[in-house]
Amino acid sequence: MFNRRDVIKSIGVLPAVTLPDVRFGLGAQGKNSEINIGIISEPNRCIKSTMERLGIEMALQDYGTCLDRPISVSVRTKENSHIPTKQLCYELIKKNKDNYIIGGVHPITSSIVAQVSQEKETLYFNTNSQPLNASTLNNKFIFNWGIDYRTATYRMLNALCIDDVSPIMIVHSQDYQYKKYTHWLKAMCISIGFSDIETFSICSFKSGDHLVDRIRIRKPRYLYLATSNNDSALIGSALVDTHIAQGVTVISGYKTWSDIDGQQPCSAFPSNWFHNHDLDAVNDFSVRYRTFVNRHHPASKQSRVLNAPNSVFYNAYMAMGSLLEALSQREGLGPYSMIDYFEGRTFSARQRMQTSKAWIDPNSHNCIQDIYRVSPQFDAVNRLSTYKVHGQI
């Protein structure tokens, strides 16, 4: 049998994880059929990155036994984290191997990886929604496993505001990506029926006070956050400290992952999965998550690990699990064979741990799946969020 060192031939190693001791045969195609999976997740950068990496690792453990071909895993580690993402992607792609790249929970990272995957004709399994530069890319080599945030935002605002066109304030970060998204969001609000729309830019640490003052003057019914996680935390702190959030519905829909660490001051946000969903498969998945974390990650490193799986973990697990399952079933490898396999493919509701089945849109390569409108309640002591579900959107 191959041990862990035989299986993983990489520019790094998976930290604190032991892959299953599995016999990886050479398969019918011989040594040239070796599979190389490049994991772009940045270790311990933040809770999002850590949870994404954990989801990928647990899928490797669960689905690794399906493969009858050699597998190597190339990863981003602390030692090579200084390497620019684009250069690292080139290094992750190995010659004479069937290459796949997975990861990229951060929007800018996923955009860079998507560009390289198109250039090198290498399949990229994006755990996020569509990359920011999707409109400039041929998406043939990109599969997106997160929810489409534009669709989710439109549905959620429609569900919240269809009978109420009260004032709405859109707060956005200064980065270009947020400004661009805000332009689209404002146009979408107008199409829904909003007429009283104001945009507010967060441009410095002191802007939290300026925002509070502006909210007091404008008295918006809805406050939409198109902001980075740091800015969202700043806004949340300002709203809580001044008790001004009462009567204001705070909405998030732009990749802020309100189920991460309780810092998002959201009254509502869209999600495709949450650990207290009332489905048998979800409860079993949460139990296996805890077992996996306790077995492979010492307590000293669990400060960046949540006590229950969240949507970031879920998307990463589903992306890697679906890739490994496909590799075990496809007689022919290579990007075009895998594209044919995934385009239009459906997944059962039980497999996806959702209410309805999901499928891959053959045009956009987005995973079309359930989207729920939920409100978080975070327990800081137990590092655990529970969610009130307001229904599917």
Detailed description of the structure:
- This is ABC transporter substrate-binding protein.
- InterPro entries: Peripla_BP_I.
- There is one protein chain.
- Helix 2 (47-63) runs parallel beside helix 10.
- The strands form 4 sheets. A 5-stranded parallel beta sheet has the order 2-1-3-4-5, with helices on both faces.
- The protein has helices at 4-7, 47-63, 85-92, 107-120, 149-161, 176-192, 207-218, 229-242, 280-296, 311-329, 335-342, 349-352, and strands at residues 35-39, 71-75, 98-103, 123-126, 142-144, 168-173, 197-202, 222-226, 249-252, 269-271, 346-347, 358-360, 367-368, 372-379, 384-392.
- The termini are far apart.
- With 393 residues, it is of the alpha/beta class.
Question: How is the biggest beta sheet arranged?
Answer: 5 strands, parallel
Helix/strand/pairing category: alpha/beta
Mean pLDDT: 75
Q: What would you report as the Rg, rounded to the nearest angstrom?
A: 21 Å
Q: What is the strand tally?
A: 15
Shape descriptor reads: globular
In whole angstroms, the N-to-C terminal distance is: 48 Å
Element-by-element helix/strand order: HEHEHEHEEHEHEHEHEEHHHEHEEEE
* Count of helical stretches: 12
Strand order of the largest sheet: 2-1-3-4-5
Uncertain segments: 1-32, 256-263
Proportion of residues in extended strands: 15-25%
- The proportion of residues forming helix, as a percent range, comes to 25-40%
Descriptive keywords:
alpha/beta, five-stranded parallel sheet, 37% helix, ABC transporter substrate-binding protein, Peripla_BP_I, disordered N terminus, 393 residues, four-stranded parallel sheet
